[in-house]
């Protein structure tokens, strides 16, 4: 497979992942925008038995002020401000978002009820409850508590934080939170529908046909039957939310971005290669200088050895001359001793011994000892 096809496949996978997340969020809001289903969900979560749908005060926030800041469902019931949000991917920052949502909800509540926050009398507010419904692909426990204080930077100071916001994350993937699913049929059906669509998409083939088959299967099993029959086309469009032209534009954009990243990487590689070549050139120059120094050192070593050889020869000559001088000195001493012996023998008129010492060195040496010469 060539690189361009591989890039296109990667872009398609990323695109389908985003579409998949978007349709789940939209479908969850569509299902629980119905007051009856919303009340059933509330009862299942809180173990209550409310039946009057009119008791609900829905305060849904959707792109009200801040672009892309959106929660799924929030409503008032039983003196509690409930904030329900659906997440198709794990997000540890939900308490931060919950803080922002709840601040806006409380502001709306204060404005609607005309509450004077500057009054010397304590004003009562509904207590908050933030639930996150999670059905992403990452494996998570049935329930997990996310805290705002986990996001705070450590300051080294002890003591409790003056601000906290907790989000209870519930895993609503099929097979999780069995008791909750039993209490809320709509939530169970939604979980089953998402699992069926995932299964169909995972099998590959034509995406539209796979989603269409998944919808047929769910209708046959009675999963979201009324909604799927009534709004089949709308739900199909939720899943397949982009046209082919949009998809192609997205693929082209992904390819352009990938090509840009590849060019940047190639540029970095060329720069790195250039740096390596420069380092290699410097190393070769240094190696040449080292070799040149080694050659000079070898030449100097040769010259030193040559000089040492000459010095040894001169030393040998000097030693030889010293030896000759010592022999000459010994000869001179011997001659001087012999001359002194001759003088003594002449003085004592021992002429016969003069002739004998010429022929008998032992006698000569004996007489020298005798006369202490």
Structure description:
By secondary structure, the chain is an alpha/beta fold. The chain has 2 domains: 213 residues, no CATH class; 101 residues. Helices cover 63% and strands 9% of the residues. It has 11 helices and 6 strands. Strands 1-2-3-4-6-5 form a 6-stranded mixed sheet. The radius of gyration is 54 Å and the shape is rod-shaped.
Task: Calculate Rg over CA atoms.
Answer: 54 Å
Please tally the helical runs, counting DSSP H or I stretches of 4 or more residues.
11
Number of domains: 2
Please state the average pLDDT score: 82
Which regions have little confidence, pLDDT < 50, spanning 5+ residues? 3-21, 62-72, 242-247
Number of strands: 6
Order of strands, widest sheet = 1-2-3-4-6-5
What's the SSE blueprint?
Blueprint: H1 3-31, H2 35-46, E1 57-58, E2 73-77, E3 80-87, H3 94-112, E4 127-134, E5 143-147, E6 166-171, H4 178-183, H5 185-202, H6 207-221, H7 225-230, H8 232-239, H9 244-347, H10 351-359, H11 361-370
Parallel strand pairs: 3-4, 4-6
Antiparallel strand pairs: 1-2, 2-3, 5-6
Helix pairs in contact: 1-8, 1-9, 5-6, 10-11
């Amino acid at each position: 497979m060539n690189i361009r096809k591989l890039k296109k496949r990667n872009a398609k996978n990323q695109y389908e992942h985003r579409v998949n997340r978007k349709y789940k969020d939209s479908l969850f809001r569509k299902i629980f925008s119905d007051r009856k289903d919303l009340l059933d969900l509330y009862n299942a979560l809180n173990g209550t038995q409310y039946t009057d749908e009119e008791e609900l005060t829905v305060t849904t926030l959707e792109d009200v002020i801040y672009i892309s800041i959106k929660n799924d469902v929030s409503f008032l019931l039983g003196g509690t401000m409930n904030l329900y949000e659906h997440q198709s991917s794990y997000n540890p920052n939900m308490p931060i978002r919950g803080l922002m949502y709840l601040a806006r909800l409380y502001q709306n509540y204060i404005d609607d009820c005309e509450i004077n926050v500057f009054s010397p009398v304590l004003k009562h507010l509904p207590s908050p409850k933030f639930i996150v419904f999670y059905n992403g692909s990452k494996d998570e426990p049935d329930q997990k508590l996310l805290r705002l204080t986990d996001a705070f930077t450590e300051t080294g100071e002890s003591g409790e934080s003056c601000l906290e916001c907790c989000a209870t994350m519930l895993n609503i993937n099929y097979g999780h939170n069995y008791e909750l699913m039993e209490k809320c049929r709509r939530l169970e059906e939604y979980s089953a529908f998402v699992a069926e669509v995932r299964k169909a998409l995972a099998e590959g083939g034509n995406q539209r046909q796979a989603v269409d088959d998944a919808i047929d299967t769910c209708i046959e099993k009675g999963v979201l039957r009324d909604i799927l029959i009534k709004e089949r086309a709308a739900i199909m469009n939720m899943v397949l939310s982009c046209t082919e032209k949009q998809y192609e534009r997205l693929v082209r954009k992904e390819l352009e971005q990938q090509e840009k990243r590849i060019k940047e990487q190639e540029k970095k590689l060329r720069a790195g290669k250039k740096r390596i070549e420069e380092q290699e050139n410097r190393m070769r120059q240094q190696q040449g200088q080292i070799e040149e120094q080694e050659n000079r050192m070898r030449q100097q070593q040769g010259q030193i050895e040559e000089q040492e050889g000459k010095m040894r020869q001169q030393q040998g000559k000097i030693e030889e001359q010293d030896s000759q001088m010592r022999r000459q000195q010994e000869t001179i001493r011997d001659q001087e001793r012999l001359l002194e012996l001759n003088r003594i023998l002449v003085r004592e008129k021992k002429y016969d011994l003069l002739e004998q010492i010429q022929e008998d060195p032992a006698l000569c040496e004996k007489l020298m000892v005798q006369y202490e010469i």
